[in-house]
Specification:
The protein is mainly beta. It contains 3 helices and 29 strands.
Length: about 400
């Protein structure tokens, strides 16, 4: 069952900057301890259905794979990396238009790895991580400017007007003795600082895991970075130019092997083989933080459990994907971005799993409402399902 479809990168734990090795700190790092064999709870013990958005399905709006979701003003921007375009819907799910600048000219991109909406200048920035450039457009996709950058995976604008980019192993160059995995750019995308050297063996390798697996998330004005195959969640302090190890995920008895900068090739191969076999947990993905609750996924043995951590009680719970109390299949929550405070959990219900919901819980009022919203289309676009967290 293991969906080890893999996309970019892996990280080690050593910290270093090409300017000052003291620019990473683990002072005050919080441990999140996970009992791999704890009883898995039901989703409705922690989450309650709030609302849904059925994305309109027509010949122009067919989505293959959602890579990123951002809510901005009255619109929903959805990156489909397979089709190399951004679909735009209104808040009711009605399709509006798509931004597609795929091509080989200087004002086009070979790939659409990530995007960022900047409301400070009403601009859209699209990262072409394959060729190493960022296109600046207006919010409808009209070209404004181009910036040449390093090849990378995802990026975001920081509160101080600088940019943070997570590079990823696959785009790393062997030209430099040390290639770092987190870059800080100034407002014009000039490199200021670098952090986290990549294990040399991992350069060029790609690892993926499902969809909507953002390595960057933003909550309450703080930027979190979760490198692939790493059990560390970092935050960047722009005022002090420091990358901080915010959280460490500790599995079991803390004997979990880590791939560090100087781990040799044989050890790396052995660890990756054990991960793929399910002998040890695979990478942590989708770091979500709402108030004092933290959520993330990992792969282990024959499943992909959701882990919930309560910062107030320091208690960790494991949750299985199952049917909620409305009859919907509670799929694993995903990272999303919003111009408003994020206080709800978002799950994506694709057409296959919605069909399962209908066959098993056909009398559910919520499922009937969704079916009506879809309009009887056999293979509709995904449905965005929002949940509130119960008082914890």
């Amino acid at each position: 069952m293991r969906n080890f479809s893999i996309i970019m990168v892996f990280m080690f734990l050593l910290s270093c900057s090409h300017k000052d090795t003291k620019n990473i700190t683990d002072s005050g790092t919080k441990e999140i301890k996970v009992n791999l064999y704890a009883e898995k709870k039901k989703s409705f013990d922690f989450f309650t259905f709030n609302s849904f958005i059925a994305l309109e399905t027509n010949d122009e709006s067919l989505i293959q794979e959602i890579k990123k979701i951002a809510f901005n003003n009255d619109k929903i921007y959805i990156l489909d990396a397979k089709q190399k375009c951004i679909f735009v819907f209104d808040r009711t799910g009605k399709y509006l238009f798509k931004i597609d600048r795929h091509g080989e000219s200087s004002v086009e991109y070979l790939s659409s790895s990530d995007f960022f909406i900047d409301n400070r200048d009403s601009m859209l920035y699209i990262l072409d991580g394959t060729s190493g450039k960022i296109l600046q457009t207006d919010l409808t996709g009209n070209f404004i400017n181009r910036f040449d950058v390093e090849k990378g995976y995802s990026f975001t604008k920081l509160p101080n007007n600088q940019w943070l980019m997570f590079m990823g192993n696959a785009g790393a160059s062997r030209d430099n003795k040390i290639f770092n995995n987190i870059f800080i750019f100034d407002k014009n995308f000039k490199v200021l600082r670098e952090f986290l050297p990549i294990n040399n063996y991992m350069i060029g390798l790609k690892y993926t895991y499902g969809t909507v697996n953002s390595s960057i998330s933003v909550y309450d004005g703080k930027t979190f970075v979760l490198p692939f195959l790493s059990n560390f969640i970092y935050t960047y302090d722009g005022a002090n130019e420091i990358l901080h190890t915010e959280y460490e995920i500790v599995f079991g008895n803390n004997s979990y092997p880590q791939i560090e900068e100087k781990t040799n090739d044989a050890e790396v191969k052995s660890i990756l083989k054990r991960m793929q076999a399910g002998d040890i947990p695979s990478r942590v993905s989708n770091f979500i933080k709402i108030n004092h609750i933290i959520l993330f996924k990992y792969s282990y043995e024959d499943g992909i459990p959701l882990c919930l951590y309560n910062e107030n009680t320091l208690k960790t719970e494991l949750i299985n994907s199952d049917f909620d109390d409305t009859g919907l299949l509670f799929t694993a929550p995903v990272v999303y971005f919003s111009d408003k405070k994020i206080d709800k959990v978002l799950c994506i219900l694709d057409s296959y799993h919605f069909g399962i919901c209908k066959s098993k819980n056909k009398d559910s009022p919520v499922i009937k409402e969704m079916d009506d919203a879809i309009g009887g289309i056999e293979d509709p676009n995904p449905i965005l399902v929002f949940y509130d967290m119960k008082n914890m």
